[in-house]
Amino acid sequence: MRVGSDEEATRSPRQGNSEWLRGARIVGVLGVFYRPEGRMGEPEAVEFLLSDSQSVILTCASDGTLHVGAGTWPRLPDWCVPAAQWEFAAMANLPQPPDGGWTVLSTEERRDERGEVHEAVIRCEGGRFVVIGGDTVGIRFTRGHRGAASAT
């Protein structure tokens, strides 16, 4: 599943169809953290690891918009400079994926009055991820989904 180039992931929001993950299996979700700040705050980006060894990264720009692009897992994004001060880390507020991962049922990009993406909702079997742009990236997972098969 091709989402976009590394350059697109950091420089411009992904345009077009918002169903960019439908059918993918998410096997992990990691935050990209600036180490001198520790992990107390929100991540600077969130990377969704997919079962086909690809990944999708959601980052926010200085204006708080959310950008979606191809991830670089297991490498840190190019904007993590100096690289020694950045790390991928699990986020305590997110559950571990079920065996085989979460199957993505649909995605939705919520836009502001200027048409810029400010929130992404990734609906999966058993729940949904909501990723919100701002000064940093906020993410939460809510269990359950209307019409979705339950995760086993």
Describe this structure in words.
The protein is mainly beta. It has one domain. It has one helix at 6-11, and strands at residues 25-34, 45-50, 55-60, 66-70, 86-89, 102-111, 117-124, 127-132, 138-143. Strands 1, 2, 3, 4, 5, 6, 7, 8 and 9 form a 9-stranded antiparallel β-sheet that branches. The model is unreliable at 1-16 and 146-152 (pLDDT under 50).
Defining key terms:
9-stranded antiparallel sheet, disordered C terminus, disordered N terminus, globular, 9 strands, 152 residues, mainly beta, 40% strand
Compact overview of the structure:
Helices cover 4% and strands 40% of the residues.
Map the helices and strands.
Blueprint: H1 6-11, E1 25-34, E2 45-50, E3 55-60, E4 66-70, E5 86-89, E6 102-111, E7 117-124, E8 127-132, E9 138-143
Query: Regions with pLDDT < 50 over 5+ consecutive residues?
Result: 1-16, 146-152
Which structural class best describes the helix and strand composition?
mainly beta
Q: What is the rounded Rg?
A: 14 Å
Q: How far from one another are the termini?
A: 25 Å
Count the beta strands.
9
Strand percentage lies at 35-45%
Coarse morphology: globular
Order of helices and strands: HEEEEEEEEE
Mean pLDDT: 82
Domain unit count: 1
Major sheet attributes:
9 strands, antiparallel
Number of helices: 1
In helices, the fraction of residues equals under 10%
